[in-house]
Amino acid sequence: MAKPTQSSTSYLHGPIMGHINRMTLPGGLGLLALFAVDFVDLFFISLLGERELAAAVGFAGSVLFFCQSIGIGLSIAVSATVSRALGADDQDKARALIASGIVLTVLTTGLIALLVWVYRDAVLGMLGASGYTLDAASNYLAIILPSFVLLSIGMAAGGVMRARGDARGALWLTLSGAIVNAVLDPILIFGLSLNLTGAAIASVLARITMFAFGVYKLHQYGLLSWPRAASVRANLPNITNIAVPSVLTNIATPIGLGFITATMAQFGDSAVAGFAIIARLQQVAFVALFALSGVVGPIAGQNLGAGAYDRVAEVLTESLRFVLWYCLAICLLLAVLTHPIVLLFQASGDAAQLIRWFTFGLSAVYLFNGITFVTNALFNNLGAPKTSTFFNIMKATVFTIPFVWVGAAFMGAPGVLIGQAIGSILIALAGWFWCRRWIHTLAS
């Protein structure tokens, strides 16, 4: 086994905002590269001039988001448990937790990938896909789903990198996949005329690259070991105590997204295509918030392990300050770039209308989504994962379904986005209030 080549970075000293900025910037750049590839995928598909293919990407994206949310939930559990072990300076415990976490990841994601692969046509039909659009989305999923296990292991490795404070390693994990995808996309989509199939193949090869890089880094840290049955049995309860609620928390969001997609489908392929463009646009535009959600957990986890409760409270305060200023800047930028975005994707009809609704105001909802990202991450890492599950399930159901349904009934396709925004605002404020109370309880 390789000797550790780099000591884990401590979050126990120094300004909290300094740690947030230092870890969020490279994490955001890595995710930006990854999200930008999806963004470019959809751009290339739009250039083919078939609105049905763009809609197919939207339907398939909802299914993949569901799968990836499970992988993210498992990686959060691995990161949370490992960060506590590192905070207590227990390398052997961290190594055993990683091995057990990989076993849980392989078993869980392998089963999910198989079930979704078998029933993908039925799932796409439930979302509202039909005809040529359904066939294209089904073929896309058939190619990409088998790589889900490898992607999930790579994400778990990324969680360990963040827990260790290895910002550069976490950045290159995502960059490696993004570079492979970006290089192969135009070759496969246009050069070999594989269209949507080419985009799927490129994504699979990118996931394989991320898996290989993640395993290599774990070996470099000296934290990679073969799982032992006794160790797995001993560690699984600790991991699953976080993994189960964390997974439930994360899959609640794509379930709500599935309802939104199905509701949008009643307004036609143009509306679904517009929603798909917005989904990828907001990933790129608000990438730092997604990165932040993976950063605040390990920072809070290490300080919790060390009993530094005042610094745990500061993580919440400083994170929300980061969310506020970042969202104000991005929302203004989106408003200015509205017309170029519409032209870039050759959007028209409902698609163009939805993009304008988003960039001219509804993008501001990400201020509240950012609050939810932060509070959920803190709940998961501060011993209250069930609370995170509760808030996410409430957001995906009670604070999404009725609001979206009413919005669609009275305002059509834009009403779907408006209803979703109202529900997100209400649940974010409730989560923020409850998170403050929980941190105060821990300190007491």
From TrEMBL:
<keyword id="KW-0472">Membrane</keyword>
<dbReference type="InterPro" id="IPR052031">
    <property type="entry name" value="Membrane_Transporter-Flippase"/>
</dbReference>
<feature type="transmembrane region" description="Helical">
    <location>
        <begin position="139"/>
        <end position="158"/>
    </location>
</feature>
<feature type="transmembrane region" description="Helical">
    <location>
        <begin position="54"/>
        <end position="82"/>
    </location>
</feature>
<feature type="transmembrane region" description="Helical">
    <location>
        <begin position="239"/>
        <end position="261"/>
    </location>
</feature>
<feature type="transmembrane region" description="Helical">
    <location>
        <begin position="94"/>
        <end position="119"/>
    </location>
</feature>
<feature type="transmembrane region" description="Helical">
    <location>
        <begin position="29"/>
        <end position="48"/>
    </location>
</feature>
<keyword id="KW-0812">Transmembrane</keyword>
<feature type="transmembrane region" description="Helical">
    <location>
        <begin position="198"/>
        <end position="218"/>
    </location>
</feature>
<keyword id="KW-0813">Transport</keyword>
<feature type="transmembrane region" description="Helical">
    <location>
        <begin position="322"/>
        <end position="345"/>
    </location>
</feature>
<protein>
    <submittedName>
        <fullName>MATE family efflux transporter</fullName>
    </submittedName>
</protein>
<keyword id="KW-1003">Cell membrane</keyword>
<feature type="transmembrane region" description="Helical">
    <location>
        <begin position="391"/>
        <end position="411"/>
    </location>
</feature>
<dbReference type="InterPro" id="IPR048279">
    <property type="entry name" value="MdtK-like"/>
</dbReference>
<feature type="transmembrane region" description="Helical">
    <location>
        <begin position="357"/>
        <end position="379"/>
    </location>
</feature>
<feature type="transmembrane region" description="Helical">
    <location>
        <begin position="417"/>
        <end position="435"/>
    </location>
</feature>
<feature type="transmembrane region" description="Helical">
    <location>
        <begin position="281"/>
        <end position="301"/>
    </location>
</feature>
<dbReference type="InterPro" id="IPR002528">
    <property type="entry name" value="MATE_fam"/>
</dbReference>
<keyword id="KW-1133">Transmembrane helix</keyword>
<feature type="transmembrane region" description="Helical">
    <location>
        <begin position="170"/>
        <end position="192"/>
    </location>
</feature>
<dbReference type="Pfam" id="PF01554">
    <property type="entry name" value="MatE"/>
</dbReference>
